[in-house]
Amino acid sequence: MTNKERVHAALEGRPVDRFPVTVLYGLYYHMDRFAELTDLPQWRVHEWVSSGPERHVELLRIMQERAPFETIMPVHGGASRSWRERHEFVERDGRPYRHDLATGEWFPIHLDPSGHPFGQTADETRHVVTREDVDRRVQPEDIDAVIADGRNDNVDAIVRAFPDDFIISGGVVGTVFNCTYHVGLTNFLALLVEEPEFIDYLCEKTLAQEISRIRRFARAGGDAVFIDDSLASSDMISPTHYERHSVPYVRAMVDEIHRLGHKAFLAHWGGISDRLDQVASTGADGLLMECSMKGYVNDVATVIERIGDRMTVCANIDPVGILQDGTDEELEAEVRRQVAAGRRGRGFIITIASPITPRTPLRRVQRFLELGRRIGVCE
After folding, report:
1. 104-132 burial: b if 16+ Cβ within 10 Å, else e
2. 3-state helix, strand, coil in the chain (%, to 5)
3. Cα dist from 161 to 64, 115, 158, 355, 372, whole Å
4. Is 102 part of a structural domain of the chain?
5. In this structure, is residue 367 part of a structural domain?
């Protein structure tokens, strides 16, 4: 079977020669370990992310040869064509810069001390107070304009360049976390109780925005769209709030993804044992959950026993304790344990619970891929 055929079969509950082996958030690994995967200076990841389709595919092909994941998640929503044409990435006096050819400005490139090339800081500002504020701030994409400006170019090119691989054309964000972009994380948690009707309205508007992005990603072809339902887990919100402010909106995203002929992956970065039936009710094809941590337990065997006939459950191998810091023996034992559980579900995908950490060397990733392909053989 090709990678594409194998992942489709696993998501549909059809027989496979072996379980697919991948990292569903592979784009972050490609960025975090760019130097190791390409033999280029790490700062050039900024150039790669913003490059045109030919260069983007060229380097992705090299990275796939060294770490051949069976799903490919492009850096979706890349720079516009006009932006690419006016910028260059060069070294000047021994330091890397982004040079704006139109204005002549030079912007130094800094690598984040976390090891991730792009740092992120939470915005706790409440930007919207009234429904009119929401209407002004939260707008669906003009899909035709965005595509015409070239922001789908790289996804289009990757779909053409990797016809036998399973392409996750893009990723969207569930309404719960999406709201935090507009009211701030702490404010959002308070507003769930203090102004639930306002959050309902904000959820409706962010849903429309994400639906437009789903349609843009689907225009590129590919196989799936990823829904990141961060903050919708047991360590953050109650099952009641999850039922009201997440489930119907995720279900609408899944329905649209299916209408467009794609598969839907749903990711939860937190505990879900108290809301498994609600998670399954979204209709998503595949479920990726975080490994057990922070006081909650996400046990693959238990999840498969409860909802494994309704969703294809993905492995949730610990990216730090097992992949990054564990021994080869510990990694093999965990792959075997999770594969044994996976055989009892309708379908299974061997993967890491969350993005591979910047401290994880290539040899460990290659070892994981080798073990998964050997242990996950199906009779």
Report:
1. eeeeebebeeeebbeeeeeeeeeebeeee
2. 50, 15, 40
3. 12, 29, 5, 24, 25
4. no
5. yes
Task: Supply the range of the domain harboring residue 236.
Answer: 3-85+114-375
User: How many domains, in total, are found in the chain?
Assistant: 1
**109 contacts 43 by C-beta, under 8 angstroms:** yes
SS3 label, residue 15: coil
Q: Are 48 and 59 in contact (CB under 8 A)?
A: yes
- Give the pTM: 0.94
Specify if 106 maps to a domain. no
pLDDT in tens, 34-75: 999 999 999 999 999 999 999 999 999 999 999 999 999 988
Hey, is 289 helix, strand or coil? strand
Q: What is the CATH number of the domain that holds 204?
A: 3.20.20.210
d(CA 346, CA 329): 28
Residue 39 structure tokens: 């033999």
Q: At 6, which amino acid appears?
A: R
Length of the chain: 379
Q: What are phi and psi of 257, to 5 degrees?
A: -60, -45
The encoded tokens of residue 284 equal 């998503």
Tokens standing for residue 214: 């789903």
For residue 178, give the amino acid letter: N
Evaluate whether residue 109 is within a structural domain. Answer: no
pLDDT tens across 214-258, in order?
999 999 999 999 999 999 999 999 999 999 999 999 999 999 999
For the beta carbon of residue 198, count every other beta carbon within 10 angstroms: 18
Question: Residue 61 CB: number of other CB atoms within 10 A?
Answer: 12
Residue 268 sits at the vertex; the CA angle it makes with 267 and 269, to the nearest 5 degrees, is 120
Quote the radius of gyration of the chain (alpha carbons, Å). Answer: 21
In whole angstroms, what separates CA 174 from the centre of its chain?
A: 12
